[in-house]
Design a protein that fits this description.
8-stranded mixed beta sheet; alpha+beta; single chain; about 675 residues
């Protein structure tokens, strides 16, 4: 379900693959700077009535060719026509073009030209002036060319086009068919000399309407040196829906429909052949003997003398591994740096007691290896990044490093950069399907990230009613796993007073409850369940003939995370979890039940998502039990509707279906 094959299709693995669907190639007529009356008069887009703007036409043309100075460059020209449908879409008139550059600033992409025009009603268009095009220095990696098309408002149609040249042939442009705006038509045209062999893949769920590659003879030549044929390709998509983000997903770049390129080999006219896309065997060797993480992962002899005797004298096993883990987690601090492949120095990081997440985890790795454990580091991509491709090694796709520890027949993934993370648990941001374990002795391999189980919150509520005083409420909430991690991080981010104020704010929204006391147990003990205790009073009118009581007070879910009509990508919670609510209402001697919600069971066909609601009675005490349980972390797009209904029912039970009590006569 998390497999990349769900949303990645390999289009081209060889430069000379030729295919054609010419009958589908119905390119719309387009004349830059000339807009039809129909485009001007358009008021909305029927297929997406909430869209702020609509891309009527876009085309990208990328070619490897000689520029006017005779240098080989990747030239790219982009043309777009956009209809502004609502005032919120006016920002589409501001265009930003990133220009990448090498860190030594010796090579960089060049902005060649741009032109743009806006159309309103039947008036002549308003052109962009060259003086309104600016270049902004962002950092050592790229600059930004910016311009804002003038005279744009609701109803405007804008045309713009620009051209760039890049010396970085390794980074052939990614073309994103899908974006935050719906598009009627998107086309990408490429011309690649046979000297350059790229791996090409299509990502996302939207189908191509047309794809065609033909061989153009002798298109690339250097006089007196040689000539090469070119593969000229055309890719077209039509009626592309806007990509709409929602809760519980990994990076949108895993799902946006796009074409990506990775240079595999280059062959010169002199027969010289250079390989860019390497095998994992090549990458393993480079990392092992590299000055950065490979070398830093082999410092166990240095760290062996720093291990306290009370740890070194322990028998090698799980308890010893935990002792090493928790002592380093307590002693070392993450400095919020995320670099992996540069500036890594475990000795310096240990001396100053702080470092990047990679440095801290490599220190842990060395300590474990020094004590005889089988441990390796694992590279992965965090949830806000694209998943690494499994088709070929792309080291730049990895941005995080953790430790894989093997003890007998059990494996553990470890990360000490977060003070609240349990042994054998990764931070939530690292729960991203799989990683590459760099076993320097036996070769690297892919390894699935299996999230920790037992992620549970249990809310026990006792409500006691009285005829002469406010109702008293005692709540105990216990959290484990990722639920406890989230709570601990939240609690540590505020003072006790600030946290209690935030709790009272939440109770104030319900309008009835006043927090009298709040305490928490095991805040500093991640191996134990986090326990919170609340004491509240509920202001009830003792003379009123009825009480309308909502039994879900703490941890109430009020908002459905799923609001789309249709979701084309998986729901990814990150880990399996459950919320258990147990409420006991002591009616005392003066109240009786007038109305009580009925029992309810909702579940997916395979039972992997389930909501139960059950009521019972024992004397004067009413018991209400509710359980929301997800036994797997990821659900397919076809299961989205069922999940949405399940949350809708849960929210109704917790917020719209009260227990109604009547005062005895």
């Amino acid at each position: 379900m998390t497999n990349q094959s769900l949303y990645t299709t390999v289009l081209v693995m060889l430069s000379f693959l030729v295919f054609s669907n010419a009958q589908q190639n119905a390119s719309p007529a387009f004349d830059f700077g000339k807009v039809s009356p129909e485009d001007i008069s358009m008021l909305h887009y029927d297929k997406d009535t909430v869209a702020n703007a609509l891309v009527l036409y876009e085309k990208g043309v990328s070619k490897i060719e000689k520029n006017s100075y005779g240098f080989v460059v990747l030239s790219t020209e982009v043309t777009r026509r956009i209809k502004i449908l609502k005032p919120e879409g006016v920002h589409e008139a501001t265009v930003e073009i990133p220009l990448h550059k090498s860190t030594d600033n010796k090579r960089k992409e060049k902005f060649i030209k741009a032109e743009a025009i806006s159309f309103n009603d039947a008036r002549p268009g308003t052109w962009l002036h060259k003086k309104d095009i600016f270049t902004e220095h962002v950092n050592e990696n790229y600059d930004l060319v910016k311009f804002t098309i003038p005279d744009v408002k609701e109803g405007t149609v804008i045309d713009y086009r620009y051209k760039t040249e890049s010396p970085f042939l390794f980074n052939f442009n990614t073309w994103r068919f899908q974006s935050d705006l719906p598009k009627l038509y998107s086309e990408y045209h490429t011309s690649i000399p046979a000297n350059y062999k790229y791996n090409i893949k299509l990502t996302g769920f939207q189908p191509l309407h047309h794809k065609e590659s033909v061989l153009k003879k002798d298109c690339f030549y250097f006089q007196g040196v040689g000539t090469a044929d070119c593969v000229v390709s055309n890719y077209i998509m039509k009626d592309i829906p806007a990509f709409k983000e929602e809760d519980h997903m990994i990076s949108r770049h895993n799902y946006l429909s796009a074409i990506d390129y990775e240079l595999e080999t280059f062959e010169g006219f002199d027969g010289m052949k250079k390989k860019y896309t390497k095998s994992w065997k090549d990458v393993d060797k480079e990392i092992k003997y590299g000055e950065e993480i490979g070398k830093q992962a082999r410092k166990e002899n240095y760290f062996s003398r720093l291990i306290p005797s009370e740890i070194s004298e322990m028998t090698t096993g799980l308890e010893k591994a935990k002792k090493i883990y928790y002592s380093l987690q307590k002693e070392l601090f993450w400095n919020n740096a995320n670099y992996i492949f540069t500036r890594v120095d475990v000795k310096e990081a240990f001396d100053r007691k702080s470092g990047s997440h990679a440095e801290l985890n490599l220190i842990l790795l060395n300590f474990l290896k020094a004590e005889g454990f089988k441990a390796d580091f694992m590279l992965l991509s965090t949830r806000d990044q694209s998943l690494p491709t499994k088709l070929y090694p792309v080291i730049s796709e990895f941005n995080y490093l953790v430790v894989k520890l093997d003890i007998e027949d059990q494996s553990y993934l470890l990360d000490i950069s977060d003070k609240n993370v349990l042994f054998g648990m990764l931070p939530f941001k690292a729960l991203n399907s799989y990683g590459r374990v760099m076993d320097m002795e036996n070769g690297s391999y892919w390894y699935d990230i299996t999230p920790l189980k037992g992620n549970k919150t249990m809310i026990s509520t006792q409500i006691s009613l009285s005829d002469s005083r406010p109702a008293t409420i005692a709540i105990q909430t216990t959290s484990s796993g990722y639920h406890a991690l989230s709570k601990r991080n939240k609690l540590r981010s505020k003072s006790q007073e600030e946290y209690e104020e935030s709790l009272q704010d939440e109770f104030d929204k319900q309008g009835l409850y006043e927090l009298e006391k709040y305490t928490v147990d095991h805040l500093e003990s991640p191996e134990d369940q986090l326990a919170e205790h609340y004491s509240l009073v509920m202001e009830n009118d003792t003379d009123a003939p009825m009480i309308v009581l909502y039994p879900f007070i703490a941890e109430r879910i009020t908002k459905n995370p799923f609001t789309l009509e249709e979701r084309t990508y998986p729901v990814d919670f990150g880990y399996p979890f459950s919320f258990i609510y147990i409420t006991a209402i002591d009616l005392g001697e003066h109240y009786e039940i007038k109305e009580l919600p009925g029992d309810k069971i909702m579940k997916l066909e395979d039972g992997s998502a389930k909501l139960t609601y059950h009521t019972s009675r024992n004397g004067n005490v009413i018991y209400i039990n509710s359980n929301l349980k997800f036994s797997r972390p990821i659900f397919t797009a076809t299961e989205y509707g069922a999940l949405k209904k399940l949350y809708t029912e849960l929210i109704s039970l917790q917020n719209k279906q009260p227990v109604i009590l009547e005062k005895k006569l």
